């Protein structure tokens, strides 16, 4: 017996699929677009309303799934919500959003109008106006005044729909296959990631067989948070082929679009031809951007590290321009900004990946930045991360700000509207968003941005009401640095304000706490100005969502002040103590906290398998000891952990090249290249040539002896974006076996240097 299974993960559409199909096949249907726009506006009003209870919000969102021309009952809604009809009725009283939230479509169980007699007053539910609205929408009534037709029960919670996903249309085309003897479809409903039911649909309602060679969806049904699959069987047919070949097209927009994808993206039935096309595209668009010697003298391990890093850092984000089911726009549409922990952009660290994209793929990166700004314009805020057309959880600050700022300070302009971009960043900092009541964090979505607009005691008081406060402060002040950098060009009068706010980390710096013979750490602080008793920066509890620090200990986070390392060095006791304290980070056996999978078995405080420590080895540059930033081991405990959507791979890529970008600054710290020659295509069509005379990693010859930038002797351990990445240029190293103090120039700058 031969079977073929195809499955897809999908969620309920924001509108029914027929409307989406019509919209894509006849864009002129502006009434549909206006209806969709009104849907989003109403949902935003419901979510941001200051006094509604979570239950009332949910009732209103459920009501919005009852389409015009249909009706439902109090008991049907109460059954769906596991509540009582009276509770539903109470929630509907004084509906402030009527008739956009259609309480008039809810009837009594006997199909009578229900409610009170009288007129429409203040959005209340009164039968005279109710009857008129239902008749206008096409509902018919019998001679007894009872609604005709079938009660609507396919409810959808539009909070999930609008923010998290959209309709998915899947077409499956088969070749050289006889018509299957059976086709079954199945749906498995998911609710808070816990499967509740498994339903077999028969006869098929999702997949239709069209003999002899096309399988596609024709009878649309939507399932909330569901995984939908289809099973094709040939029974005991001995003539059925042993190999089943199919091509699948997926579209968020229409059947015709999905069909086009099948023929344009997979034009041949030959798997080998498809593989060849994919290899050509990867080589042309990605791998050819960095070229190193690949002859017999090349280190094959380093080659694997380089090109596998390039591969993984280009898997996400996703350019879905032309596949935007949420709004109509000429701007690019991007998704899958999963750049660290859950969906967080964690700008201080993961924007290392953004810099990689900026340098190697500026057209794509410009498009990506425009896509982020577009999300702000239509959904209210920049994402901290995004996937499935949903702005995900906010782990720290508003890290989308850091991605925008890094692009701005490194000169990315093109068609980006930076006035709108700056407005998005300011809103993140100044406007507290609505509360989505996510069970992981019951504070308003992105409410952490509120700390950014506070100073002094107000900031401290607020921080101690939220989770992982040390983590929040560290990331929130990074966002303020981002604002100050963009303000310098867009709104100069704002720069000083945000520079001062970026010093907020100093408000929770405990100058008295001691650990491992070092004094002064970031620490939880109470509203009365005191610090937590018994605090030990070597621990963070579970280092999870409810802890004072997330996936790392305060010892690590205390070093993560990249915008003001000058003040950090002073707070830690000066350059000598700062240097010694950095050494302690790399000392085996010092770590005490069990970080689980994030620890990767590392016993040093320095954990390169996790993003908080990405920049730590390079902090030696700030005391002009670049040679101490060299160490990397090709071993299980010396390489990064999981990819985190390319963040780890981008970090490694920069090590191999011999540079390290400082996010939200136009500066790069100089490392040591791993190849004798590197040619990089930068800024579209320019070339940066890096050479390393005397390089021999097997013999320990990797310490920088001298550097020339564009042919000139260089005495600083850092350079700027403009030096080598705008017009290309040259970077020539002389390497040797001895640690050498070659940098005699100024240490890297601290653009956010402020002492409170």
UniProtKB/TrEMBL annotation:
One GO BP: glycoprotein catabolic process
GO CC aspect terms: cytosol; nucleus
Single GO molecular function: carbohydrate binding
Start and end residues of each Methylated-DNA-[protein]-cysteine S-methyltransferase DNA binding domain: 54-139
Taxonomy, superkingdom: Eukaryota
Residues of the Glycosyl hydrolase family domain: 258-736
Record field: catalytic activity: a 6-O-methyl-2'-deoxyguanosine in DNA + L-cysteinyl-[protein] = S-methyl-L-cysteinyl-[protein] + a 2'-deoxyguanosine in DNA; a 4-O-methyl-thymidine in DNA + L-cysteinyl-[protein] = a thymidine in DNA + S-methyl-L-cysteinyl-[protein]
UniProt keyword list: DNA damage, DNA repair, Methyltransferase, Transferase
Record carries keyword Acetylation: no
Family the entry assigns: Belongs to the MGMT family.
This protein's name: Methylated-DNA--protein-cysteine methyltransferase
Species per Swiss-Prot/TrEMBL record: Talaromyces marneffei (strain ATCC 18224 / CBS 334.59 / QM 7333)
Lineage: Eukaryota, Fungi, Dikarya, Ascomycota, Pezizomycotina
């Amino acid at each position: 017996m031969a079977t073929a299974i195809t499955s897809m993960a999908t969620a309920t559409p924001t509108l029914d699929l027929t409307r989406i199909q019509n919209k894509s096949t006849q864009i002129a249907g502006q009434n549909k677009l206006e209806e969709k726009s009104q849907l989003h506006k109403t949902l935003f009003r419901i979510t941001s309303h200051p006094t509604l209870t979570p239950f009332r919000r949910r009732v209103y969102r459920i009501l919005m799934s009852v389409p015009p021309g249909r009706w439902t009952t109090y008991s049907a809604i109460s059954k769906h919500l596991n509540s009582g009809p009276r509770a539903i009725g109470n929630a509907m009283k004084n509906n402030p959003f009527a008739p956009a939230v259609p309480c008039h479509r809810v009837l009594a169980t006997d199909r009578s109008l229900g409610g009170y007699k009288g007129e429409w007053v203040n959005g209340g539910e009164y039968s005279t106006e109710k009857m008129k609205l239902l008749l206008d929408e096409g509902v018919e009534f019998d001679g007894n005044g009872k609604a005709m037709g079938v009660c609507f029960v396919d409810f959808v919670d539009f909070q999930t729909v609008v923010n998290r996903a959209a309709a998915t249309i899947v077409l499956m085309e088969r070749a050289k296959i006889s018509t299957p003897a059976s086709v079954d479809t199945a749906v498995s409903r998911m609710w808070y990631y816990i499967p509740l039911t498994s339903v077999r649909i028969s006869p098929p309602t999702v997949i239709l067989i069209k003999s002899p060679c096309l399988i596609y969806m024709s009878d649309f049904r939507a399932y909330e948070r569901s995984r939908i699959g289809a099973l094709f069987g040939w029974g005991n047919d001995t003539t059925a082929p042993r190999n089943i070949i199919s091509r699948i097209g997926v579209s968020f927009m229409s059947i015709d679009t999905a069909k086009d994808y099948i023929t344009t993206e997979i034009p041949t039935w030959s798997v080998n031809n498809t593989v060849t096309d994919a290899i050509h595209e990867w080589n042309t668009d990605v791998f050819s951007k960095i070229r190193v010697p690949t002859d017999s003298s090349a280190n094959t391990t380093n080659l694997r590290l380089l090109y596998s890093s390039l591969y993984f850092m280009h898997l996400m984000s996703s350019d879905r321009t032309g596949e935007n089911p949420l709004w109509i726009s000429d701007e690019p549409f991007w998704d899958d900004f999963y750049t660290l922990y859950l969906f967080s952009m964690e700008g201080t660290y993961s924007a290392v990946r953004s810099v990689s994209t900026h340098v190697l793929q500026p057209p794509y990166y410009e498009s990506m930045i425009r896509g982020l700004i577009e999300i702000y314009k239509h959904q209210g805020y920049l994402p901290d991360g995004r996937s499935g057309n949903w702005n995900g959880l906010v782990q720290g600050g508003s890290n989308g700000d850091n991605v925008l700022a890094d692009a701005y300070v490194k000169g990315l302009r093109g068609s980006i509207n930076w006035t709108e971009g700056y407005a998005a960043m300011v809103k993140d900092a100044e406007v507290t968003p609505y509360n989505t009541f996510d069970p992981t964090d019951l504070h308003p979505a992105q409410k952490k941005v509120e700390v950014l607009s506070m100073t002094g005691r107000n900031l401290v008081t607020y921080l101690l009401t939220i989770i992982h406060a040390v983590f929040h402060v560290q990331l929130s002040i990074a966002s303020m640095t981002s604002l100050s950098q963009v303000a310098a060009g867009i709104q100069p009068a704002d720069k000083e304000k945000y520079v001062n706010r970026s010093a907020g980390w100093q408000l929770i710096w405990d100058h008295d706490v001691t650990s491992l013979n070092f004094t002064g750490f970031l620490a939880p602080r109470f509203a009365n100005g005191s610090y937590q008793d018994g605090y030990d920066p070597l621990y963070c509890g579970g280092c999870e969502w409810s802890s004072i620090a997330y996936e790392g200990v305060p010892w690590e986070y205390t070093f993560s002040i990249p915008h003001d390392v000058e003040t950090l060095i002073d707070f830690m006791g000066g350059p000598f103590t700062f240097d010694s304290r950095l050494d302690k980070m790399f000392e085996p056996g010092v770590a005490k906290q069990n970080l689980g999978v994030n620890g990767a078995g590392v016993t040093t405080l320095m954990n390169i398998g996790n993003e908080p420590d990405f920049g730590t080895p390079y902090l030696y540059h700030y005391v002009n000891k670049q040679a101490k930033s060299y160490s990397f081991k090709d071993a299980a405990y010396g390489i990064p952990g999981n990819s985190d959507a390319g963040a780890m791979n981008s970090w490694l890529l920069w090590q191999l090249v011999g540079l390290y970008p400082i996010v939200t600054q136009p500066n790069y710290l100089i490392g040591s290249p791993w190849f004798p020659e590197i040619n990089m295509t930068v800024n579209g069509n320019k070339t940066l040539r890096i050479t390393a005379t005397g390089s021999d990693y097997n013999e320990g010859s990797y310490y920088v002896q001298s550097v020339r930038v564009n042919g000139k002797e260089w005495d600083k351990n850092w350079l700027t974006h403009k030096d080598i990445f705008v017009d290309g240029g040259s970077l020539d190293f002389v390497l040797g076996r001895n640690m050498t103090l070659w940098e005699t120039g100024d240490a890297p700058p601290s653009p956010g240097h402020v002492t409170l």
